[in-house]
């Protein structure tokens, strides 16, 4: 059940306050992979076997449906929600507004990954267990299926295309999501990092995609022109999380914090030492940013990248998500060890002693 709204009370210092819109107990360990954000709602897995849709402003339950013991993947696109549970070999599509099941299709065992576009949902390719298959979002009918059970890292969609690449492979391919036709193929400067579910592709704005290669390199792909260039190459191995393009900057996280780079030339713009592992997620807040550390710290940065506020949350943080308009999100979703917290930043000069709701 969602708690009543409150105000986040900071550890020492003044300047800003964050309004807690609501907090929900998930009754299980929280993780950003079990959460998907819609235009005005958030879908989250909780209580081990339930999938729940919550209003982003007040946390009220729009629908609550049986799902499975744990999600293999959950995604939202338009007015539809898609999910695959680990113990149920099926892909289900729900109406995002009502929770009504629109269709369900049986799947081969160990089918993983969901990549949803406006009218197509792509599944398969996880560990090479099943064929990459595209379905019509409206009906669940198969559009195409690639034989051979080729493995891919988690795909990323860009318009009506999808980018795929084999773990430890040195090539990436761009496919037409409607028919599976290959639109382009590129050789990378280093092999893709081998990952299970961690995303190493990311949108870099409306016209480019970002790709992690090895442990030191990020490349930029512009599908419209076919241009592939090395954007950033570090001088030592890095334990990076997914590259994120937020607020006009390229953000990379590692064990000590995160850094922001200029997407034009790859130059370092700012370095943020969190003092703990970076909790995946960078949320633009006005002219600044909100970051999180896995030991429970929220950090607010100004436009120059200086830390203007550290907020100690009395629980671990798994991930941060932005909710609301893509260019100016109005709610920050904080996934903690066992709860989901929705926060709205607001101006204040209040200075108080500790976190409380």
Automatic annotation (TrEMBL):
Pfam families with a match to the protein in the record: PQQ_2
Pyrrolo-quinoline quinone repeat domain boundaries: 19-81, 91-229
InterPro entries: PQQ_rpt_dom, Quinoprotein_ADH-like_sf, WD40/YVTN_repeat-like_dom_sf
Superkingdom per UniProt: Bacteria
Signal peptide start and end residues: none
Name of the protein this chain belongs to: PQQ-binding-like beta-propeller repeat protein
